[in-house]
Amino acid sequence: MEQWQRKREILQLLGSGEFVSGEALAEQLGVSRTAVSNHIDVLESLGVSIFSVKGKGYRLATPVNLIDEARLKQGIDRRCFYFDDIASTNGFMLTHTDELESGDVCIAEHQSAGRGRRGRRWASPYGSHLYFSLFWRLEEGMNKAMGLSLVVGCSLAKVLADMGISGVGLKWPNDVYLDGKKLAGILIEMKGQADSNCELIIGIGVNLAMPDAAGADIDQPWADLQGVGMPDKTDFAVRLQRQLQQDLSLFEEQGLNAFVERWQTADLYLGKQVNLLLADKVQSGICRGIDNQGALLLEQDGQVVSYIGGEISLRLAAV
């Protein structure tokens, strides 16, 4: 904890926008120049982008927005596990499901093994984004969870809108976009039975301030919240946990019917020509939104066909 506190203090001192010399950092922290250099090396290895100029010192290249742990835990009425570094917030929750209650969350500043859909790596540079997992128990089993990723997308879109972020849209089944580029992803993992007790881990990653090096490794257009009204990260996490609790309770009571209209309002591809990639096949048509099971509705030759489950990717058709 002491070592992480030193690193956080260094980041705070470098966040002024001005260069700070190694000597000044060492003096203010009461440590050696070598210790300062070692801490900075570790931060860079975790994805923090730091400018280093001989004769001037160090400066952050990209903002680092850290959680205020005390304010986080004060704002959330469930248990909250907070880490500077962890393999995966979803992984942590999955190993502790027997001890958790609905609404408990795990939040980290860095993930060494962050995951996206289909096992893809999720870029997780330290302090740059929000890495968030929430636990929820469904008494009626996995069958009741149909369409859950759409509900989570609606929750995240509402929180962003409430915080003044415009240009947010949803892409079936689990992506959140900003001005046509991917801003956030959702990964839901389950343990349990189809028709009895089911435990859900809802993982959410939101790009706040993407370092250049991390962004260069991403193979699709991405967006972050720099320049569009960067939210206070602690406030963002608290609002998201509260909104998810509210929406998941509503989902348990009323199912996806309660969210279809919210989804349609934010659906990026509604009424547009799209392609559905299903293994080695492509289905083309006009996106007509979703049904009350969370299936994508595709109009083909005047008929509306529903598609759900399996390895399906949705793409906007080339004009």
Task: Provide an overview of this structure.
There is one protein chain. The chain is of the alpha+beta class and 319 residues long. The chain has three domains: 2-60, Winged helix-like DNA-binding domain superfamily/Winged helix DNA-binding domain (Arc Repressor Mutant, subunit A, Orthogonal Bundle); 69-265, Bira Bifunctional Protein, Domain 2 (BirA Bifunctional Protein, domain 2, 2-Layer Sandwich), CATH 3.30.930.10; 269-316, Roll (SH3 type barrels). It is 30% helix and 27% strand. The chain contains nine helices and 14 strands. The protein has helices at 2-14, 22-29, 33-45, 69-75, 89-94, 148-162, 212-216, 233-254, 260-266, and strands at residues 50-53, 57-60, 80-83, 105-108, 129-138, 168-171, 175-178, 181-192, 198-207, 273-278, 281-290, 296-300, 303-307, 312-316. The strands form three sheets. Strands 3-4-5-9-8-7-6 form a seven-stranded mixed sheet. A hairpin with a 3-residue loop joins strand 1 (50-53) and strand 2. The longest helix is centred in the last third of the chain and has 22 residues, at 233-254. It is globular and about 70 Å long. The N and C termini lie far apart (54 Å). The mean pLDDT is 90.
